[in-house]
Write a structure and sequence with these properties.
Layout (H helix, E strand, L loop, with lengths): L33 H4 L42 E2 L1 H4 L10 E2 L5 E6 L10 H18 L9 E3 L5 E3 L4 H7 L3 E2 L11 E6 L10 H18 L6 E3 L11 H4 L1 H12 L1
Helix pairs in contact: 5-7
C-alpha cells in the first residue's frame, strides 16, 4: 500500500492482549456490537481489562485441542495491542468473520515516511493514522490490514476482531489489504517505505516473531508467506519482498 500521510502524536496507553475461548463466526462491529468491535470482550472481562497477559500463563501455553483448534504452543505469544488499546474508531459497519482458517500471510509496507520515532506512542498514533486513511480516504469500514508492525517493533491489531480470531486459531476476519486474498490471507502492514532502504532490525525481528506465531495458530506452513506484489501490480512491500526467503527460513526455524 503506497499512501504517505502526515504524523500525529498520542499519549501512551496500556497494552491489552486478546484471550482464548470459543469464537462463533458471526459479524463483528457496528455501534450495537461494542464487545465484538474490540475483538475480545466476548470472554471474561476480568481477563481483558486493566493489564497485559504474560507469556507462560495458562492462556499462553498449550497445543492442539480435541476439536482440531490450534492453540498457543511452542512459539510464545508476542505482545499485540488490541484496537481498544491504541484508540481505534469503531468500524463503520459490521466486520465479517470467515468461518475457516487463512492459508497464507501477506506482507505489506505502509509507504509512510520512515520515522525515527520508535516509541510505543508513535506506533499507536500510526495505527490511528492508517485507520483514518483507510476509512476516510479509501471508504473502507475499518483498517484494511489485520495487524500492523511499527518501526520500533511494536505490534498492533489492525482490523477489529483480528486478534481475537488469531488467538483462537479457527476463523479469520475478512480484510481489505489485497484484492482476491482478503478472505484467505492475514495481512500485516510494516510501517515505512522500503524501496531503497532496509527496515530497522526491531521491525524485522518483530515480523519474524509475528509470522511464526500466526503460522502456529493457524497451521500455516512457513512457505506460505508472501508479499503484496505477488498478487498485485505494486512495489509493496519493497525490499522486504526480496527477503521473503530469509523470512520463511527464520519462521520455519522458530516453528521447529
Amino acid at each position: 500500500m503506497s499512501v504517505p500521510v502526515s504524523r500525529r502524536s498520542v499519549l501512551r496507553g496500556a497494552v491489552l492482549l486478546g484471550t482464548a475461548g470459543a469464537l462463533t463466526p458471526t459479524p463483528f462491529g457496528g455501534s450495537a456490537a461494542s464487545a465484538a468491535a474490540v475483538g475480545h470482550s466476548a470472554v471474561d472481562p476480568a481477563l481483558t481489562t486493566g493489564s497485559a497477559l504474560t507469556h507462560g500463563s495458562a492462556l499462553t501455553t498449550g497445543s492442539t485441542s480435541a476439536d482440531g483448534r490450534v492453540v498457543l504452543g511452542r512459539v510464545d505469544q508476542p505482545v499485540i495491542a488490541n484496537c481498544a488499546t491504541w484508540g481505534a474508531r469503531p468500524p463503520s459497519s459490521p466486520v465479517s468473520v470467515v468461518g475457516s482458517r487463512p492459508n497464507k500471510i501477506i506482507v505489506h509496507h505502509t509507504a509512510f515516511p520512515n520515522s525515527t520515532d520508535y516509541s510505543l506512542a508513535h506506533a499507536y498514533a500510526n495505527s490511528r493514522e492508517i485507520q483514518d486513511l483507510h476509512m476516510d480516504g479509501n471508504g473502507w469500514l475499518d483498517s484494511g490490514q489485520h495487524f500492523t508492525n511499527s518501526r520500533g517493533g511494536q505490534l498492533t491489531e489492525g482490523r477489529h476482531g483480528s486478534l481475537y480470531a488469531l488467538l483462537h486459531g479457527q476463523t479469520m476476519v475478512q480484510g481489505a489489504h489485497c484484492v482476491g486474498q482478503n478472505s484467505q490471507a492475514i495481512g500485516i502492514e510494516n510501517d515505512g517505505i522500503y524501496v531503497d532502504v532496509q527496515p530497522p532490525q526491531a521491525l524485522w525481528d518483530s515480523l519474524v516473531v509475528f509470522c511464526a506465531f500466526t503460522c502456529q495458530q493457524y497451521a500455516i506452513p512457513a512457505s506460505q508467506i508472501y508479499g503484496h506484489k505477488d498478487f498485485a501490480s505494486t512495489q509493496c512491500p519493497g525490499l522486504l519482498h526480496d527477503r521473503l526467503p530469509e523470512l520463511r527460513s527464520a519462521v520455519a526455524a522458530r516453528l521447529g
